[in-house]
Amino acid sequence: MVPVIALVGRPNVGKSTLFNRLTRSRDALVADLSGLTRDRKYGEGKVGGARFIVIDTGGISGDEEGIDSLMAKQSLMAIEEADIVLFLVDGRAGLNPADEMIADHLRRSEKSCYLVVNKTDGLDPDVAISDFFGLGLGQPLPIAASQNRSVTLLIEEVLSELPEQEADVLPEEFKFSTRIAVVGRPNVGKSTLVNRMLGEDRVVVFDQAGTTRDSIYIPYERDGEPYILIDTAGVRRRKNITEAVEKFSIIKTLQAIEDANVVVCVIDARQGVTDQDLHMLGFVLDAGRSLVIALNKWDGMLEEQKLKVKEQIQRRLEFVDFARFHFISALHGSGVGEMYRSVDEAYVSAMAKWPTNRLTRLLEDVVAEHQPPMVNGRRIKMRYAHQGGSNPPIIVVHGNQLDNLPASYKRYLQNKFRQVLGIKGTPVRFEFRVGDNPFEGRPNQLTPRQLAKKQRFKLHVQDLKKESKRKSRKKK
Ligand SMILES: Nc1nc2c(ncn2[C@@H]2O[C@H](COP(=O)(O)OP(=O)(O)OP(=O)(O)O)[C@@H](O)[C@H]2O)c(=O)[nH]1
Ligand SMILES: Nc1nc2c(ncn2[C@@H]2O[C@H](COP(=O)(O)OP(=O)(O)OP(=O)(O)O)[C@@H](O)[C@H]2O)c(=O)[nH]1
User: Fold this and answer.
1) Which of 145, 281, 394, 404 gives 20 to 30 Å between its CA and that of 245?
2) Which residues line ligand 2 (CB under 6 A)?
């Protein structure tokens, strides 16, 4: 599962600034799923090649007294669910009594927690952090979120200390399975659907495939094809369907989406499409996952109700019109077999590989059919296209003046590529790069200067850690 990083700290220390630095999407998913407070934000983070989920916990006000009221319940829950907690303090304001209360709580929790001193720009980092050793949370790490200073290094450092992921220890034959996440609001019928998907005649579930019964990964075969169901609902751990194991967890849902190839988003047709459904779909789209939408509980609905839902889909779900919609009854099993066909189709599209010459030829054809506009008397030129990734497919286009390419032309490109390459059920991303060399500007390639800087920071952190270990030994 992708790791979850929670940002905690009192107001104004720079949590939102750091959050915005770390998340790709400018509009964070503001969680009002399952009635959580609106001020807690979730986002998909990406630094270098690593992906993670960031939560800006908000909710901690320094004005209240006592740790219970100080840390709103939501923040505590976020800390519980996170793999890593970044506790932010303000290097300019210095130590504050509220910091001590938060630190006190974090010290008692078992979480892997890092003390991050923000706003150290223009300060001597060693002086800025000196105030905070007393919090007893180990080595304070200096950053300046608004300047983007040491932010990447910080994240790389904390992620590198996480233990191995469960997915990495799955047996070899399941490494290339279609990974399916079934997500949706509480009570829409996820568990019923998961049981139905696993309980089909043609399905063989492997209990002995190297995963424990507690594993959230359920490997199985259907018609000889390997699949893995990501079981966030704890279906397998329940003795029967009605026994709820865990309450709805938005973090688990987001992790499952990140972890999947294909997301089956379950919507309760009887309730219609709700705002919460839209939020969840928005996250699937941001994550670039392929998508199948299941309108569940279609059994026993009146004709006029059905019409109303279909009309609502057209109106509210246009932004995910690349996905296939299925009207199903998880309870009776109707429509589930066809849904598998869409899952397979979406997987194939999400993982497809196209050679550079095919994409470049297609680009030439598309441009010949409809030229991009002139800008400042010069025509926008597109020269090469190559594939920059899969799940979601990324098409990288190289040319001149691409910054000026109008949105309508981008849509045209996108539609044409979808149509000709037969891409179904997955979002497609286009990246535009100026310059002729198709291999220029690849991600993950650090310049020598960046490499040196990274090395220096690592050494710095190592030194600081040694120092704090030495100090704590001395204390004992
Ligand atoms: N000098 C400096 N200012 C910063 C830095 N990071 C954030 N700030 C400023 O600190 C102020 C508060 O930042 P926010 O990101 O809103 O803080 P927050 O912790 O999210 O605050 P709440 O939303 O109230 O919880 C803003 O004016 C930021 O511009 C930094 O690295 N250096
Ligand atoms: N009529 C009808 N009821 C259904 C269908 N699918 C599920 N239900 C019922 O809806 C209720 C909720 O189903 P669950 O499968 O527990 O829903 P869930 O999404 O897993 O719920 P949480 O575990 O709370 O997130 C149960 O009473 C199911 O019997 C369906 O296709 N038709």
Assistant:
1) 281
2) 184, 186-192, 233, 244, 248, 296-297, 299, 329-331
Is-contact 423 390, C-beta < 8 A?
A: no
Cβ(159) – ligand 1 distance below 6 Å = no
Tokens matching residue 10: 């009192």
pLDDT, tens only, 95-131: 988 899 889 888 888 788 999 999 999 998 888 899 8
The total number of structural domains in the chain stands at 3
* In a domain? residue 264: yes
Q: What's the pLDDT at 89? A: 94
Q: Which residue lies with its CA nearest to atom 10 of ligand 1?
A: 14
Cα 332 versus chain centre, distance: 33
Whether residue 127 is found in the same domain as residue 204:
no
* C-beta separation of 195 from 178 below 8 A: no
Distance, CA of 138 to CA of 65 (rounded, Å): 25
ipTM of predicted complex: 0.79
* Same-domain status, 319 and 363: no
Q: Which domain holds residue 301?
A: 166-351
* Residue at 450 is within a domain: no
pLDDT in tens, 35-81: 344 456 778 888 877 888 888 877 565 554 555 454 566 677 778 87
Residue 451 in domain? no
Report which bound ligand comes closest to the CA of 328: 2
CA of 81 to the centre of ligand 2 (A): 25
Q: Is residue 41 part of a domain?
A: yes
Query: Binding site for GTP: residue ranges?
Result: 9-16, 56-60, 118-121, 184-191, 231-235, 296-299
Q: Which range is most confident: 207-221, 233-247, 407-421, 430-444?
A: 407-421
Q: Cα(314)–Cα(305) distance, rounded to whole angstroms?
A: 15
For range 442-462, the mean pLDDT: 63
Q: CA 40 → CA 23, 298, 438, distances in Å?
A: 14, 34, 40
95: domain CATH number is 3.40.50.300
